[in-house]
Amino acid sequence: MTSDNAAAPATAPPGDAENLSWKSAGDPSEAAARPIKVIGPPAFSLPTVFTGIRTLIQYSDLLYTLSLFRLHVRYKQSFLGWAWAVVQPLALMGI
């Protein structure tokens, strides 16, 4: 055993270097081969807004029931709980 093998960094065997399916990040040919897809927010349009409002109206009973249940659970033994649930967000909005 020679001292050259001990000092060499651990790398893949020479035959396996050609079989690697990835390339280095600095390779410009790889960037040109892969398309880049930019994901952005959905476009704002009035039909989208009206569709969202229509969906909220369709599920209004579920929204009401879940909101009522949450208020009952959270403010079960509180005298001013229901008022605080309304006043506190309005006060933050006003500030």
Explain this structure.
There is one protein chain. The chain has 95 residues and is mainly α. It has a domain at 46-94. Helix content is 56%, strand content 0%. The protein contains 5 helices and no strands. The protein has helices at 3-7, 28-33, 46-58, 60-74, 81-94. The mean pLDDT is 76.
Give a quick summary of the entry:
By secondary structure, the chain is an all-alpha fold.
Give the tags.
95 residues; 5 helices; mainly alpha; single chain; elongated; 0% strand
Summarize the helix and strand pattern as letters: HHHHH
Overall 3D shape: elongated
Number of helices: 5
Poorly predicted regions are: none
Distance between the termini: 77 Å
Please count the beta strands (DSSP E, at least 2 residues each).
0
- What's the gyration radius in Å? 31 Å
Strand content: under 5%
Structural class: mainly alpha
Range of helix content? 55-70%
Mean pLDDT: 76
Biggest sheet details = none
Chain-wise SSE layout:
Blueprint: H1 3-7, H2 28-33, H3 46-58, H4 60-74, H5 81-94
